[in-house]
């Protein structure tokens, strides 16, 4: 994937054809001696805890940003839940009320940040 001077091209081409192989899954150039390890590390099918199957190389990103069972924190009480349960929990949790220390009124937790503007 680099520019090769014309004078070195034939030697380069011979070297590459002997030592480098293109991965049939991702098109990456990999040393022939490391192809088995590359395929096992990157392209073996694994199953996430959510039962979705994918290549091993995609698992970390899936677990961090797409898995419905990834950890998530409630914005109101900081309890850790799985992402698939977060929405329903936050609806319930945000509807709880707490007394305002300034005016004494009961205010829904989801409105506590905005309450000081209208307090009193």
TrEMBL record:
Residues 78-120 form the TRAFD1/XAF1 zinc finger domain. The keyword Phosphoprotein applies. Keywords: Acetylation, Metal-binding, Phosphoprotein, Zinc, Zinc-finger. The keyword Metal-binding applies. GO terms for cellular component: mitochondrion. Negative feedback regulator that controls excessive innate immune responses. Regulates both Toll-like receptor 4 (TLR4) and DDX58/RIG1-like helicases (RLH) pathways. May inhibit the LTR pathway by direct interaction with TRAF6 and attenuation of NF-kappa-B activation. May negatively regulate the RLH pathway downstream from MAVS and upstream of NF-kappa-B and IRF3. InterPro entries: Innate_Immune_Apopt_Reg, TRAFD1-XIAF1_Znf, Znf_RING/FYVE/PHD. This is TRAF-type zinc finger domain-containing protein 1. GO terms for molecular function: zinc ion binding. GO terms for biological process: negative regulation of innate immune response.
């Amino acid at each position: 994937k680099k520019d090769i001077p014309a004078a070195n091209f034939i030697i380069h081409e011979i070297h590459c054809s002997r030592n480098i192989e293109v991965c049939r899954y991702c098109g990456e150039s990999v040393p022939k001696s490391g192809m088995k390890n590359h395929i096992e590390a990157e392209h073996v099918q694994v199953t996430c805890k959510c039962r979705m199957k994918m290549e091993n190389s995609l698992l970390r990103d899936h677990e961090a940003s797409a898995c419905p069972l990834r950890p998530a924190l409630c914005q109101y009480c900081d309890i850790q839940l799985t992402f698939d349960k977060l929405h329903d929990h936050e609806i319930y949790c945000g509807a709880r009320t707490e007394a305002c220390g300034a005016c004494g009124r009961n205010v829904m937790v989801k409105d506590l940040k905005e309450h000081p503007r209208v307090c009193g």
